[in-house]
Amino acid sequence: MRARKYVVFLLSAILVLSGLAFGQKAEAIDGLKFNVKPNIPDNQYNKEVSYFDLIMKPGEGQEIAVMLKNTTDEEVVVIPQINSAMTNSNGVVEYSNHNNKKRVYDKSLKNNIEDIVQLAENEVVLAPQEEKELKLTITMPSEEFNGVIAGGIYLAQKDNSTEGTEETTKKETSTSLKNLYGYQIGLLLRNNEKLITPEVVIDGAQADQLNVRNAVSLKVRNTAPTYINKVHFQAELKKKGSDEVIAKTDQKEMQFAPNTIFDLFVSMQGKRYEAGDYVLTGSITSGDNKWPINEAFTVTREKANKFNEADPDVEPEDYTMIIILGALVAVFALAAIYLIRKNNKQKALLKQLNDEKNEN
């Protein structure tokens, strides 16, 4: 389980890094047939990075562009998308939404980049070897803000391998990014250079599952408009009133996107949930900032049974001892009944003999 989570974390990190880079060979990312290169403008705040990090005035408008280059001798269709930055359950920031999942925004998010940046085209068709510029228009909020509005440009390559079927047409209508994969380019917007104090809110824990495996989920919110970097998450799960550690985690080098809400998980490592009261304790730290974790929750018998039955790593309950004990109880009960009846018969026989003797 831990190895699987590490692989997911590593792949996510590779995607983020590859998306923030530009001008690299498309074939290096799952056989993509096009390259991307952000045209970085003069108002770039951090000139050391290859993604957009722009400082602009309140209410200001600006047009930016990304160069798309078809590197093959066949037509390529690129579908761009603007996404607000999200934090996933591995503590990795994502700028894509290639699975078209329902997005949950934290209530602290005042300025959503999806409302601020507009695409000139919703689909870009690249002829063989063609290079084309994709334009985007930014309209900054009229009210000045501190911190950063974080998001990304997701450039997906459309997979035409299953086009033409009725089922595919229905899927593409309902989820426009079905069967797509591509680059992601960070897009950060700010009004000023003021530093923001990180703020983390712990919002409860509960019995849950991750990838159909038992894992306690901890609801976490980054309520500040700033990235929280080099995060260390450690936690222990115990039954209420017990010192025995049932499950624990120790994860480092996480990153939380600004104004995001997400779940972090503590794997049960194949252990069963038992009905009862639990306590999850630990901390989330970043630099000199530390946020304690002390969350109590209850697992009902119904929920425990539901999760335990679904988790393929959980061993089925062994009823052997119960069956043996039940059988022994039954044997002893039958033996007791037999002895009582036998004793009663003997008493009755003795009484009968005594009665006959007295009559004589």
Automatic annotation (TrEMBL):
Signal sequence segment: 1-21
Q: Does the keyword Metal-binding apply?
A: no
Domain of life, per lineage: Bacteria
Please state every residue range assigned to the domain named WxL Interacting Protein host binding. Answer: 173-309
Q: Which InterPro entries match?
A: WxLIP_HBD, WxLIP_PGBD
Transmembrane segments in this chain: where?
Answer: 319-340
Pfam families xrefs: WxLIP_HBD, WxLIP_PGBD
Q: Can you give the residue ranges of the WxL Interacting Protein peptidoglycan binding domain?
A: 34-156
Give the keywords, sorted. Membrane, Signal, Transmembrane, Transmembrane helix
In its UniProt entry, what is this protein called? DUF916 and DUF3324 domain-containing protein
Q: Give the originating organism.
A: Enterococcus hulanensis
